[in-house]
Specification:
single chain, 154 residues, mainly alpha, Ribonucleotide Reductase, subunit A, 2 strands, flat
């Protein structure tokens, strides 16, 4: 998208990323609820396991990234993004980032391409590729009481 190549494919990928961002936030929230129920020793064990697993996965991704991107010279940029993305996953879980990389370190073209902000293509019709967030209110028992006008006929 940042280079105006395959714009329709890029828009589909942005929609998928936006959807996955919502999933990651929700999964992280649910994890935090369960994590907070653990005692301190269990929390420390789980955190150690998570960081060990993430580092093992990152080492695997380093090798895979090199095999894919060394030929085109993108390996360093991709690794920065991988570290940034790993940190985002940890933060979704309520944990501290593992790597020093931040959004400012990621190639701006990539950051623009993965932006989950919405865009409107047509000012007048407000047609766009974003989600409209609904207003939510808590359900109450009275919400399930139905009255039908035909009940008098029975």
């Amino acid at each position: 998208l940042g280079h105006n190549k395959l714009p329709n494919v890029a828009e589909i990928i942005k929609l998928i990323l936006r959807d996955e961002s919502v999933h990651g936030t929700y999964i992280g929230y649910k994890f935090q609820l369960g994590f907070n129920e653990l005692n301190e020793e269990q929390q420390e064990e789980l955190k150690a396991w998570i960081y060990d697993l993430l580092y093992d996965l990152y080492e695997n991704e380093e090798k895979y990234t090199a095999s894919l991107y060394d030929q085109v010279g993108w390996t360093d940029d991709v690794l920065v993004f991988l570290r940034y993305n790993a940190n985002k996953a940890l933060m979704n879980l309520g944990l501290d980032p593992l790597f020093p990389d931040t959004a400012e370190d990621v190639n701006p073209v990539v950051m623009n391409g993965i932006s989950t902000s919405t865009s409107n293509h047509d000012f007048f019709s407000q047609v766009g590729n974003g989600y409209l967030l609904g207003n939510v209110e808590a359900m109450e028992d009275k919400d399930y009481l139905f009255r039908f006008d035909n009940d008098d006929e029975d």
